[in-house]
Design goal:
- This protein is an alpha/beta fold and about 350 residues long.
- The chain contains 15 helices and nine strands.
- β1, α2 and β2 form a beta-alpha-beta unit.
Length: about 350
């Protein structure tokens, strides 16, 4: 009995000495995905967590499946009428207790060592404002197409300067002492995270770890498919604001528009998910996983065999390095969207 008490005391002392990390989870009708998603956070190898859940007006009863998980002393839940994801994120930021905060979408999966690995990177580099990681896609219950190429501070700066996110936005962990004053822009729903990451990256350094630590679920009911053109309008507005902050003229920087003219209608509907597959193929080829790269390319082709846009990953998997290098200049950007 004494040994058990001693072990509990040791663990409690260790938690007090380790930094508190807040994990922000915005929930809107996450359905059956909420339970495995929340379990992936509760089960993290890093234990000193402040799990902050904002229920943004869910009506599907998803919280009924997690009542036992909400009993965890680290979990705090706030309910509000539906007000969009950026509003929910800002409410969460107002409640953050940790020195760092991580984003986690309510239907996604954080791999067990995600928080531990990203926190370690932030603690070792006190000047960094954010650390991102690689991610896989979860489609029809299967985890596919991992991306895991590391990016140093200079790489991320080049991406930000080119109006691109260095990594998928929900994989981010942020240092509150540097970004605690920054909020998500409620007037830019669907692309609020894109705008937020650009603004953080314009002010502070960030990196991307060369580890795939996150599973991003692709849903056929995503907002992009429901109203892709409205989302594109918000992309344009976010880019206009970024140009204004940098003293640039939007019409000169994006003289041909922010979206490639070569993209198919299907790629606009699915938020250009094929770009993620192409990047995954490249990462796996660099890691000498040629067979895995080919399988990933085949999965991309299966998304829409009648659209040549989805053949590109196969070209990346089979072509010579010189041909791939020339094609990469046209590699499009995969931007995530809110799942409300």
């Amino acid at each position: 009995m004494k040994q058990g008490l001693n072990l509990a005391s040791i663990e409690s002392n260790a938690l007090r000495k380790s930094p508190l990390v807040s994990v922000v989870i915005c929930v809107y009708n996450a359905g059956s995905y909420l339970r495995p998603s929340l379990l992936s956070i509760i089960g993290q190898t890093y234990r000193n967590l402040d799990i902050l859940i904002i229920d943004d007006g869910s009506t599907d009863g998803c919280f009924e499946s997690v009542q036992d998980l909400l009993a965890d002393s680290r979990v705090r839940v706030f309910h509000q009428a539906n007000a969009t994801r950026p509003v929910a994120l800002n409410r969460a930021l107002d409640q953050v207790r940790g020195e760092f905060y991580a984003v986690h979408d309510a239907d996604d999966i954080s791999y067990p060592r995600r928080i531990e690995t990203q926190l370690h990177a932030l603690l070792n580099r006190p000047h960094l404002a954010a650390v991102f990681c690689g991610n896989a896609l979860i489609i029809d219950g299967r985890s596919i197409a991992p991306v895991f190429a590391p990016k140093c501070e200079d790489d991320c700066k080049r991406e930000i300067d080119a109006f691109r996110m260095p990594a998928h936005d929900p994989t981010g962990m942020f240092r509150m002492s540097l970004v605690g004053h920054i909020r998500y822009e409620a007037s830019l729903p669907f692309v609020e995270a894109f705008d937020y990451v650009l603004r953080v990256g314009e002010q502070h350094p960030m990196i991307v770890l060369g580890d795939c630590l996150y599973g991003y679920r692709i849903l056929s009911t995503s907002v992009t498919r429901r109203d892709p053109m409205r989302r594109e309008q918000f992309v344009v507005e976010a880019l206009r604001r970024a140009c204004d902050r940098r003293g640039l003229e939007y019409d000169q920087v994006f003289s041909h528009g922010p979206v490639s003219r070569h993209r198919s209608q299907n790629s606009i509907l699915d938020n250009n998910i094929a770009a993620h597959f192409m990047q995954s193929v490249l990462d796996q080829r660099r890691a000498r996983r040629r067979l895995a790269a080919l399988r990933t390319a085949w999965e991309c082709f299966r998304l829409d065999p009648f659209d040549p846009h989805y053949y590109k990953a196969l070209v990346y998997a089979l072509a010579s390095p010189s041909i791939v290098a020339s094609l990469r200049r046209e590699l499009p950007v995969f931007l995530s969207t809110s799942k409300e």
